[in-house]
Write a structure and sequence with these properties.
292 residues; mainly alpha; two-stranded antiparallel sheet; BTB domain-containing protein
Amino acid sequence: MKPAHTPTPQIASASAYLTLLSLEGTHHHVDTTTLRRNSDLFDTMLTLPVPERRHIKEASRCPPIEVFEHDATLSKTLHLINGGSVQWSTIEEAYPILKLAEKWDSQHLLRRIRDQLSSSHIPRTQTLRFFAAAKHFEWTEEARQASRYTLSVDLQAPENAVIFEQLPSKAAESLLDLRRKRSALFRRLLDNPTRFPGGNSSLFFCDNCCTAHPQDDLWHNFKKALDAELAHVPSGAKIVALTDGGDTWVEADACWGARCPTGGCGAPRFDRRFTLLQIRSCIDSLPSTIDP
């Protein structure tokens, strides 16, 4: 079908609406003013001068404008342009409308969909896909917030690896860099003798009997387990569960069960409550989002 000519402002105001033709051949009617207000592309098109050879009588018939979009995409887009709302179930539902809004240079529509998606379950349930969309459309704050949720995502799982490999290299590297920063800082904090005096010195001192003893591997093994867990699940969810008392680890229990070897003393080697509070403080102080 030969592409239809676009009407002029005078013709548009006379007819009050335009007809958009979908790929399926369906006619979709839309108010001209509403379309122009929501699309810089159409606003520009409808301000173009009328070719002198065309007669107003002929032009007033205003043939449908082919937009080369499917009915489902066009219907939902026009519904949103006309003030409707959509409950998005998946990011895949929104992608065609986002791409069309981008093509039509509809910043208002892009902002509406952006706000709807950001306040939905999608950033948490489809974290990588939402992060990819946020990066594509340059939604800086949304991408930053979504990066927090990616810490719970196993990037090596087949269903996630496919999405991760499709990210632009800079975006993918930013997520990996966030994980590396968290691991490195966590390791430094766990090694801090001020935070954990009972395990990070060559000797451990028993306050109960005022005796110093050679250090053993109990705290070292616990730190290794903590470090490995954060590398495995960068969000630190299992570590948080441990500090909240909702989980138990063999390495942690070995520390809690350790006693001063001085005869007649037997005082606990580690202050369980203090140690867990310090570990939780370490987790809470780690960076949780990518750099702006």
